[in-house]
Amino acid sequence: MMLERATNPLDQLEIIDTLERFGVAYHYEDQTGTKLKSIYDNIIDKQRLKQEPHLYATALQFRLLRKHGYNVPQEVFCSFMDLEGNFKASPCHDVKGLVYLYEASYLSLPGEAILEEAQKFSSKNLKAYLKKESNSSTSGDDAKNYHLNMARHALELPLHWRMQKLEARWFIDVYQNSPDMKPILLELAKLDFNIVQAVHQQDLKRASRRILSQVGALITVIDDIYDVYSTLDEVELFTEAVARWDIIEMDKLPDYMKICFLALYNSINKIAFDSLKEEELHITPYLKKAWADLCKSYLLEAEWYHSGYKPSLHEYLDNAWVSISAPLLLVYAYFAVPNQITKEASECILDYPNIVKWSSLITRLADDLGTSKHEQKRGDNPKSIECYMHESGASEAAAREHIHYLISEAWKKINEYQIGNTAVFSQTFIRMAMNLARMSQCMYQHGDGFGAQNLETKNRVISLLVEPVSLTSKD
């Protein structure tokens, strides 16, 4: 393999980065893991990290090592800064270095001032570069087009926050213009994408029988019951029935709620029965609690709506990270992979560990950014944007900026959790939680990609699940 033949650490890092962007690194997990550990071990000397002379190499090394759980210090970038803590002017025209610095800054942890400065510096200079090049001709200049595309793409949404397979589809097209393009890697990426797409197409034929598909349908129906179809008295009865988990409670419900409750009751018991029979795992208490918590959060929002109460942002978010249903989905996801289940982790999942809370918070905030305008016109409860505006007197633009800031801070905490993971939860589960946050930012990036699908969302679904990548080489 190309990675095994590469002897220069930078060459190794570039190959690993390309494999990951293409979404094919899972084929070489052992090899990439070994190389990254070797690189980290070789550059650590008496707690000091070797500083590469080039911004691009330093940023690439930093991002990949942090992504894989190595706590590389932010001070590796000090050689590019002056005595006042500002980045020197010399990297301003290094577009490739600036893009990689910008991407690396999103692997930051709470309180890392150097990386905050790196993000401001790289963002400012990349925007200036794009503005300068906006009216210039790039016809026939593949390398320049490549760097322009990479800069625009990074500023739109950083790599660390993107869905891997969607990123792979985009990168396959862009990589063909890369000055460092390796045809064998591009061919591998195209073949792998089409093979995986074909597998997903077969999965979609059986989607209605998948557990998470059933759960998603139940969430949508129950959410509408609380939001649209029921009186406050009725949803109080439904919440009580779910909390008690007693089929007798169904007698107190109106007929349309009886159907919904029975569907939920049977669904959970069927999943729990299969888990007990096949894996010898008794998961009923965990699923019951997750559903009860979700319904209680829906009930609180219904009470706010009927009373006209406007919660503070803190009060709203304290409930809304649950009502977005992400904790429920992650509980199901945890038990969907039996070999990651431990007694300690199962006890922890009951109270929703921080990785679940932060992933759920990002999901909620991304949803609010994408759906708030539409839902306010419909007369729904205030979302995070409206709560912050009401509480602080800020404009809508300022409120949205604050919500983006909260998302960024939540990602820093996720990064910290991943690096400092004490093995209570498997890396598989941590990746699930991170990918849920990524999926939400993708879904709501251009508006409400769930409730009011837009053209951008439709095109993404088609490119991922319908249209295969052309295997024809670029002329």
From TrEMBL:
* Listed GO MF terms: magnesium ion binding; terpene synthase activity
Q: Which UniProt keywords apply?
A: Lyase, Magnesium, Metal-binding
| Ranges where the Terpene synthase N-terminal domain occurs | 7-136
* GO terms of biological process kind: diterpenoid biosynthetic process; hydrocarbon biosynthetic process
Q: Where is the Terpene synthase metal-binding domain?
A: 195-413
Q: Which cofactor does it need?
A: Mg(2+)
Listed InterPro entries:
Isoprenoid_synthase_dom_sf (IPR008949), Terpene_cyclase-like_1_C (IPR034741), Terpene_cyclase_plant_C1 (IPR044814), Terpene_synth_N (IPR001906), Terpene_synth_N_sf (IPR036965), Terpene_synthase-like (IPR050148), Terpene_synthase_metal-bd (IPR005630), Terpenoid_cyclase/PrenylTrfase (IPR008930)
Per the record, the similarity remark reads: Belongs to the terpene synthase family.
Protein name, please? Answer: Uncharacterized protein
